[in-house]
Design a protein that fits this description.
44% of the residues lie in helices and 13% in strands. By secondary structure, it is an alpha/beta fold. It has 2 domains: 19-254, TIM Barrel (Alpha-Beta Barrel), CATH 3.20.20; 264-333. Strands 3-4-5-6-7-8-9-10 form an 8-stranded parallel β-barrel, surrounded by 7 helices. The protein has a two-stranded antiparallel sheet with strand order 1-2. β5 (81-85), α4 and β6 (106-111) form a beta-alpha-beta unit. The longest helix has 19 residues, at 264-282. The chain starts with 15 loop residues before the first strand and ends in a 10-residue tail after the last helix.
């Protein structure tokens, strides 16, 4: 009989991915163009139970594309998870082998990305329309490596084809060790609200641990997700942009420990470390331009727009091409944070 992972959702059981036991139940979602190595390091340092790389195209990864290599970077993170995407079993297997050889502890298969540039190539969530091909990709990936393979997908392509439960059963039989479900269909993209209750169908269809994803922005959301879905854990995506420490705070809360909000000095240190990692790995100009979405979010969460002069500083922060100015402005953003320590 399969274990009911929701039975004790405050403390909860340990989530295992094959031989790997997670320390907690809150995971940072893979987000293309967002969860760079710097963001993942910050989330990992501040208690995220697991972090997953940006999606990497399997064929580009194997061919040595430098941008793809950077997306799969995992130095300073243990365990390291690389998410791969594609629609060809050969390239998926080869990408999994390369990820394993490069130090990955887990390979995750992307079957959930709704972007047209991905689904147009019959990858990502488009695979939910071709479950036979999806299963061949899973089998090729599992066969290629000794490390655990996991799978991330949506409820289905559209409301008329919720087939995540059927695919989950087939994936389990093929050797996948954990399933993540985003509680929307591909056709919803990110509109409306994620259907956490619908994830329960997948939980009941498999003995694997299932992770619930979609619209988790707080500890209260996480608890409600677990209760509604019966999932083993939760995955946090967009809500962690500008506050990657949120994942660890929620993991702590789900473990029954009162999460202590970071003081502004701690947030400032984490944000600066994130910026520095992007400049170091991508170069000053490219790193700064890639960082703009993060810098904007850090400023917003620090409350810059609610203070006189803050909006102008924020604008300068996200337009400057000078690393020194960016560092100084980012540090000043946290002067607006309500948790700023008294002098």
């Amino acid at each position: 009989m399969c274990m009911n992972f929701s039975a004790q959702y405050l403390g909860g059981p340990t989530i295992s991915i094959g031989p790997l036991a997670l320390q907690g139940r809150a995971i940072l979602a893979p987000m293309s163009g967002v969860t760079d190595i710097g963001m993942r390091r910050v989330a990992h340092t501040h208690g995220a139970s697991l972090v997953v790389s940006e999606m990497v195209a399997s064929d580009d990864f194997v061919r040595g594309c430098e941008e793809t290599r950077l997306r799969a970077e995992g130095s300073g993170i243990d365990p390291h998870v690389v998410q791969i995407a594609g629609c060809d079993p050969h390239w998926m297997g080869e990408a999994a082998r390369l990820a394993e050889a490069s130090g990955a502890a887990v390979v995750d298969i992307n079957m959930g990305c709704p972007a047209k540039r991905v689904t147009g190539g019959y990858a990502g969530s488009a695979l939910m329309r071709t479950p036979d091909l999806a299963l061949r990709l899973v089998e090729a990936t599992v066969k290629a490596v000794k490390i655990p393979v996991t799978l991330k997908m949506r409820l289905g392509w559209d409301d008329a084809s919720h087939n995540a439960a059927e695919i989950a059963r087939a994936a389990e039989a093929a050797g996948v060790r954990l399933i993540t479900i985003h509680g929307r269909t591909r056709q919803q993209f990110y509109k409306g609200r994620a259907d956490w209750c619908a994830i329960r169908n997948v939980v009941q269809a498999t003995c694997l641990p299932v992770i619930a994803n979609g619209d988790c922005a707080s500890l209260g959301d996480a608890r409600a997700m677990l209760e509604a879905s019966g999932a083993a854990g939760i995955m946090i995506g967009r809500a962690a942009v500008g506050r990657p420490w949120l994942v660890g705070e929620i993991a702590s809360g789900l473990a029954g420990r009162a999460p202590a909000p970071l003081l502004s000095a701690q947030k400032r240190e984490a944000a600066l470390a994130h910026l520095e990692s992007l400049i170091e790995t991508m170069g000053a100009l490219t790193g700064l331009r890639h960082a703009r979405k993060h810098l904007s979010a850090y400023a917003d969460h620090a409350g810059a727009n609610s203070h006189a002069g803050g909006a102008a500083m924020r604008l300068r922060l996200v337009t400057t091409d000078c690393p020194i100015e960016a560092r100084n402005l980012l540090a000043r953003m946290f002067e607006f944070d309500p948790l700023t320590e008294a002098a």
